[in-house]
Every structure is written in C-alpha cells, then in structure tokens.
Design a protein that fits this description.
It is a single-pass type I membrane protein. The protein is mostly beta strands. It contains 6 helices and 32 strands. The chain has 4 domains: 127 residues, Cupredoxins -  blue copper proteins (Immunoglobulin-like), CATH 2.60.40.420; 179 residues, Immunoglobulin-like, CATH 2.60.40; 190 residues, Immunoglobulin-like (Sandwich), CATH 2.60.40.420; 40 residues, no CATH class. Strands 21, 22, 24, 26, 27, 29 and 32 form a 7-stranded mixed β-sheet that branches. Bound molecules: 2-acetamido-2-deoxy-beta-D-glucopyranose (11 copies) and copper (II) ion.
Amino acid sequence: MVTSVGSLLVRLVAALCLFQYVQAKTVTYDFNVTWVTANPDGLYDRKVVGINNQWPLPVIEVDKGDQLVVNMYNGLGTHSTSIHFHGMFQNGTSDMDGPSMVTQCPVVPGASITYNFTVNQNGTYWYHCHTDYCYPDGYRQALIVHDNSSYFNEMYDEEYTITMSDWYHEMVEDIKFIDKTNPTGAEPVPNAFLFNDTMNTSLSVEPGKTYLLRLANVGAFVAQYFYIEDHTFKIVEIDGVYTDPTEAEILYIAVAQRYAVLVTAKNSTEKNYPIVTVADSELLDTIPSNLQLNHTNWLEYNKDADHPQATITVETASDLDPFDDMSLVPYDHMEILPDADLVLNLTVSMMNLDDGAGYAFLNDISYTKPKVPTLYTVLSAGNLATDAEVYGDFTHSVVLDRNQVVEIILNNGDGGSHPFHFHGHNFQMLDRAPSYGRHFYDYADGDPLTYDPNNHTAFPKYPARRDTLVLPPQGYFVVRFVADNPGVWLFHCHIDWHLQQGLAMTFVEAPLQLQEQLTVPQNHYDVCDAAGVQYKGNAAGNTEDYLDLSGQNKQLGWLPAGFTAKGIVAMVFSCVSAFLGMAFISVYGASGIKTANNKKPETEQTEGDGTASSDS
Ligand SMILES: *[C@@H]1O[C@H](CO)[C@@H](O)[C@H](O)[C@H]1NC(C)=O
Ligand SMILES: *[C@@H]1O[C@H](CO)[C@@H](O)[C@H](O)[C@H]1NC(C)=O
Ligand SMILES: *[C@@H]1O[C@H](CO)[C@@H](O)[C@H](O)[C@H]1NC(C)=O
Ligand SMILES: *[C@@H]1O[C@H](CO)[C@@H](O)[C@H](O)[C@H]1NC(C)=O
Ligand SMILES: *[C@@H]1O[C@H](CO)[C@@H](O)[C@H](O)[C@H]1NC(C)=O
Ligand SMILES: *[C@@H]1O[C@H](CO)[C@@H](O)[C@H](O)[C@H]1NC(C)=O
Ligand SMILES: *[C@@H]1O[C@H](CO)[C@@H](O)[C@H](O)[C@H]1NC(C)=O
Ligand SMILES: *[C@@H]1O[C@H](CO)[C@@H](O)[C@H](O)[C@H]1NC(C)=O
Ligand SMILES: *[C@@H]1O[C@H](CO)[C@@H](O)[C@H](O)[C@H]1NC(C)=O
Ligand SMILES: *[C@@H]1O[C@H](CO)[C@@H](O)[C@H](O)[C@H]1NC(C)=O
Ligand SMILES: *[C@@H]1O[C@H](CO)[C@@H](O)[C@H](O)[C@H]1NC(C)=O
Ligand SMILES: [Cu+2]
C-alpha cells in the first residue's frame, strides 16, 4: 500500500540489532509512477515515466545488508508496469524479481505492489521497468549498494554515479518494430545519447583527489565507449563484483552493464578534460546525419577555464580498442567451477515468422509469455514442478537441480552483438570469441565462430564474473554458474528490442526447494486479481491437468512454403549473413521454409561430460 506519496520520501527505520557492528536497517521508497514531461537532449519534449512527479528518477541507495522496501503505485493510467532490480540475486525472494509473467503479474493502472527484499550484495546496480518493454520510456535509474568495508574504500575521496543511455523521442508503443514493414528486424535508431540523463555536464574534481565513478549503461539498445582524455583509471567493480584493481583507458559498456572505476585527479587546475562517450555505431542500421554519436562532458578542475570538445583521434568507434572484461580477476579470487553437471548448447538466430515480421530465437524458440507467471506455476504444480512441460513450449524453460553446476555455450548465428543478462546470478566467464578490440566485428559478415569444446582457449583459473555479458557478432561465449538460488530466472538479451522479439529463456531452479521456501505476499496475488491473470495452473492456465498445454500461448507459425515473395526475400535478406558456411543453418532454414507448424525443436542439453548432443 502506498501510504504517503508526494515528494520522494525515504523512511529509515533502524532495526533492533544484537550485533554491535551490524547496522542492517529498512530503507523504504514510495513510488507514485505517473507520466511527466522531459526534454533531456534539448531537442524534444516527450512524455516519460516519472516517479513522484520527477524525472530523472531517484537513485535508490542502500547499504549492504539493508532491507529494501519499494511501494509502487501505478498511476500511468494507460500502461501496466513492474520493477526489476537488475543484478540483485533475490536469494530467497524470487517473487521480488519483477519481470511480468515470469515472477509476478503485471501491475495494471490503479494497482499497487510492494517489493521487499534483503540486499546482500555490494556495488553498482540499477532498476527498471520489466513489463511490456517500457524502460526506454524513461523508467530506469541507478541503484547503489554502499559498502564502506570494500577493499577500495580507503582509496577514494568522493564518488559519482553516472548513467548513460540512448534516447528515443517516440514512445515505445509508437515505434513500429515487430512489423511486416520491418522484415529485417532493423532496430529503431535512437534520436540522442544521454549522459546521466542530460548533456554537457561537468564533474567537479579537486587536484590530487581520487574519485569513484560508478558507470551504468541504462540504455535500451546501444553500447557506449567511455574514456577520459589524458587520464587512465582503475576498474574495481563490474556488475557488483569487486575486481582486482586493473588499469584501463577505454571501456565498452553495453546496455545493462556497470563499471566502477577509480580516477585520480591531476595536481594542476589549469585545464578541464573531456569525458568522452561514443555510441557504438556498428549496432545501428542507419546513422541519420543529425545523430550525434559522440559526446563530451568534463572532468572539471577549474570552472572558469575552457571546456574543450573531445579530440577524437579515430574516425569510428570500431577503431577504439576497449578493455576486455574477460581479463579481469574477481577480488575474491573465486576459482573456476568444476566441470558442469549440465551443459546447454544454445544458438541465437533471427528469422521471420508467418506474419512477415522479424523474431529472435534461442534454438528455434522465440520466448512467448505464458498465461500464468512461471513462478506461480512452480508454486501450484506440486511434484510436477520438476517437469519442464508444465511451463509450456514457448517460455523455453529449463529445470535445474539444486546446486548443479551449469554451463551455457551460447553461439551467435546472428551478425549483431547481444548483451545477455541472467537474473538471480552472475556467471563465470570462461571463454569468448572474438575478443573485444579491433577484431570484434570481423565476423559480422564472414564465417561465424562456433565453440569447440575440444579446442578452445585455456579457461582462466579465476574467471571474471558479471551479470551481463556481450555475445559478439557470429561469435560465442561460454559461462558457468551454480544453481544455488532456488527461483525462476530469466536469461535474455538486454537489448530491449530483442527481448521483445523473444530473445529470452527461463531457468526454473530447484523448484521443490522453492515451494518449501517461498511465501508470496498477498499483495502480489492481488496484483493478479486486478489484472485478471490467473496465479495457479500450468502455462496454459490449466489447473486440473498440468501436462495438458492446450490453449497455451505460442510463437507464430514458421513461414509457410509459397509465402509471398516479399516475405521470402525479407527472410533471406535478414538471414543471409548467418547462412554462410553454417551447417546447422541449413536445417533451420529448411525447417523455417518447409514447415508451417509450431512443433518444438528439441532443446539440446545433456548431462555430464561437457559435450552436448546435436539436433534431433
Ligand atoms: C500520484 O500522483 C498523481 C499526480 O501527482 C496524483 O494525482 C495521485 O493522487 C497520486 N496517487 C497516489 C496514490 O498518491
Ligand atoms: C549540449 O551542447 C551541444 C553543443 O554545444 C548542443 O548542441 C546541445 O544542444 C547541448 N545539449 C543540451 C541538452 O544542452
Ligand atoms: C518485509 O519483509 C520482512 C522480512 O520478511 C518483514 O519482516 C517485513 O514486515 C516486510 N515489510 C513489508 C513492508 O512488507
Ligand atoms: C559503515 O556503514 C555503516 C552503515 O551505514 C555505519 O554504521 C558505519 O558507521 C560505517 N562505518 C564507517 C567506518 O564509516
Ligand atoms: C560485500 O563486501 C564485503 C566487504 O567488502 C565482502 O566481504 C562481501 O563478499 C561482498 N559481498 C558480495 C556479494 O560481493
Ligand atoms: C546523476 O543523476 C542522478 C539523478 O539525478 C544524481 O543523483 C547524480 O548526482 C548525478 N550524477 C552526477 C555525477 O551529477
Ligand atoms: C601530485 O602531488 C603529490 C604531492 O606533491 C605527488 O605525490 C603526486 O605524485 C602528484 N601527482 C601527479 C599526478 O603528479
Ligand atoms: C565526433 O565528433 C567530432 C567533432 O564533433 C566529429 O568530427 C566526429 O565525426 C565524431 N565522431 C563520431 C564517431 O561521431
Ligand atoms: C583449434 O582452434 C584454432 C583457433 O581457432 C585453429 O586455428 C586450429 O586449427 C584448431 N585446431 C583443431 C585441431 O581443430
Ligand atoms: C543463496 O543463499 C544460499 C543459502 O544462504 C547460498 O548458499 C547461495 O550461495 C546463495 N546464492 C546466491 C546466488 O546468492
Ligand atoms: C551446438 O549446437 C550447434 C548447432 O546445432 C552445433 O553446430 C554445435 O556443434 C554444438 N556445439 C556443441 C559443443 O555441441
Ligand atoms: Cu540482442
């Protein structure tokens, strides 16, 4: 329930605590979510999602160990919503994770929900809407977990939180994207790029002091390069994982990724230095002449001195050689996990379905939301919760046993890069090809690389971990994690357009333990009642026979033989680069054209020895 709403109200309630040094407290935010008008790029007034009549939205700030309570009232009138706290493991509170139809029902206009969970992590996170692709409309902001016992706590004087993002003038709903008029699935090109939800700003610094910069790309689509002219910095955290301090000059920050870096100011106050962000134009199908890809903000030593524009020394972003996050070492030196109990071999592809529009697939499945949120299917299915069938064919659910070591091989059969995010976990990054740098895009139009378990680069002893990892164009990555967090967790591309096209799957982790552990608060079920969404039953809403999926939501049919020339041309065009030299693509291609039903292809997975079976 929203009790007091108006201005942002943060109530701090110190909890009774037996331990002298532990000061866990409850931090409460009341969010009244309504439309407001904003013009952060100085080009266009638009409607954005505001909180308590404000935009930019409030940064959520807590200390490690705090209980975070967010009371959200949906005052949008027209749109449903929900909040995902990106990077929070929600260990024991999977119901607080936020994605609609995965762990909760959509919060319809006029309804309220309370999120309430313990924050047992440190570092730089963010929150955003996770219903119907609404965060590009402004519903996103940083979430900082302060930790004054971090190893770098004594190494800096002050900290700054900075978001960067792409920016659209149109509302998401007004952008024609999944549409037969856009058969190639070309992503909407942003109108601008923002630096902390504005432009042309300065971070004031004092000589000799060291600053912790918390950087978060809260955009919907475009990655950005980041550097500060004449300054290097030390990376100390990625996606909430402390790293050994590692010097870097240029970062490549994909959407949803975060970096915390230490920058030491020079001793002289004569000059101000450009903080440069460059949008990765390789991601854009077209670059309108009026789109400013690079931006200068300033490390300001002297506000009366000149604020010079960046001296871009290279012509295009692809010539910038960014720091390769695979080479970072977590500060805790957690060793590589043992060989996996379960290996999933997944391939990303983009194809057209029979409406002529472009969709995205993991092993031929384009995520399609179920009729009952998957978490609620777990909680109502009894022992059948361990049977992936009950979650339906198009949520692409994989059931994990408690504490299994899981390895994901993700091959990219597409010429675009995809920042993949895993809810509820971070993963160990074992291998990726090609690596960041000048050759990152070499394969976009050429022969794809596929991961060969018998011939790969040596895995690191202490692999870097993060919750969002970029899958290179026609390359691959390999990650591992332990299924030690009972819950329902989405694994998806964080380009919001690709999520909308179905580039997602679901991990149902330790469902029987989850049934024992979790009690969903009544207000979450009330949200379902308000939305008219069932909270019992299988993916098709069947509460009698959980193995009967008739009536489930399905992805559209494959392109039938003899589909209009326009459709075929579109499909061939969109897939042409992926076809080259890829044996499995001929199978996909053929099945795509010849079959017109919704038969689910087998998902490749095997137990045990690290090899995965091929298509059956
Ligand atoms: C939310 O804010 C709107 C606009 O200021 C106001 O009309 C409405 O009463 C508020 N709702 C609640 C529940 O406070
Ligand atoms: C930032 O500065 C540029 C260049 O001077 C200008 O074109 C742009 O309008 C400014 N943006 C804002 C939001 O003030
Ligand atoms: C939040 O959860 C804690 C722990 O379960 C509980 O004690 C507390 O009452 C809850 N607070 C709210 C506002 O729901
Ligand atoms: C660290 O943070 C806790 C909780 O906010 C606070 O009680 C404590 O005084 C802080 N310690 C230092 C050394 O700043
Ligand atoms: C949070 O920080 C503390 C102290 O620096 C550290 O011991 C702990 O492992 C960190 N927790 C996580 C989840 O990173
Ligand atoms: C970035 O914006 C947030 C929200 O408005 C603000 O709290 C923060 O101080 C800003 N950061 C800087 C470096 O100005
Ligand atoms: C700045 O001055 C301090 C103290 O004189 C010195 O230790 C430090 O090396 C200087 N830093 C730089 C970057 O010159
Ligand atoms: C960056 O800006 C400079 C000067 O404003 C311009 O000449 C250059 O083409 C821009 N580069 C990119 C990649 O946009
Ligand atoms: C192993 O991979 C490397 C690098 O991709 C390649 O050059 C080499 O031919 C491969 N070796 C075998 C035996 O396949
Ligand atoms: C979740 O909590 C359990 C029990 O405290 C712990 O063993 C596990 O490592 C945690 N998992 C994550 C992802 O935080
Ligand atoms: C993964 O699947 C693809 C497509 O079916 C196949 O080409 C590849 O060999 C498989 N990789 C492994 C490690 O099984
Ligand atoms: Cu993607």
